[in-house]
Amino acid sequence: MALQHDPQRHRFFVDVPGGTAELTYRRPDPKTVELLHTEVPEAAAGQGLGGKLAESAFVWARGEGLRVIPTCPFVRKWLERHPGESDLVLAGTGAK
Predict the structure, then answer these.
(1) Tens of pLDDT along 71-83?
(2) SS3 letters across 49-91
(3) Which residues contact 51 (CB under 8 A, 6 or more apart)?
(4) Would you give the distance in Å from CA 63 to the centre of its chain?
(5) Considering all CA atoms of the chain, what is the largest pairwise distance in Å, rounded to the nearest integer?
(6) I want to staple 41 with a disulfide (CB 3.0 to 4.6 A). Which of 19, 55, 75, 76 is the partner?
(7) 3-state secondary structure of 42
(8) pTM for the whole thing?
(9) Residue 3 pairs with which residues in a beta bridge?
(10) Phi, psi of 69 (to 5 degrees)
(11) What is d(CA 34, CA 46) in angstroms, rounded to the nearest whole number?
């Protein structure tokens, strides 16, 4: 089960039983990524997939030198448990 990045469809995803787990994003400008929505099929819930998707997005953003706007409520909660990633969060976006 390998996570993939599909930049054309603006998402990180993995196919799982019951469908596809994904984290969608948009690029409001060349230096910023807005993480919009995380979804995991019910059949695959509780396996940590949402966290793995968030981690992949932050690894990618860091590697690309991007700032992050964490609009997705799941990603905001994930950031509370991973404060080391908060340096990428764009100031003034309401994230902790």
Answers:
(1) 999 999 999 999 9
(2) HHHHHHHHHHHHHHHHCCEEEECCHHHHHHHHHCHHHHHHECC
(3) 78
(4) 14
(5) 38
(6) 19
(7) helix
(8) 0.92
(9) none
(10) -110, 110
(11) 25
Q: Encode pLDDT of 48-91 as tens digits.
A: 999 999 999 999 999 999 999 999 999 999 999 999 999 999 88
Q: Which two tokens stand for residue 49?
A: 């997939």
Topology of the domain covering 4-88: Aminopeptidase (3.40.630)
Name the nearest CA neighbour of 62 among 91, 33, 37: 33
Domain boundaries, given as residue ranges, for the chain: 4-88
Q: For 43-69, b where at least 16 C-beta lie within 10 A, e where not — what string?
A: ebeeeebbbbbbbbbbeebeeeebbbb
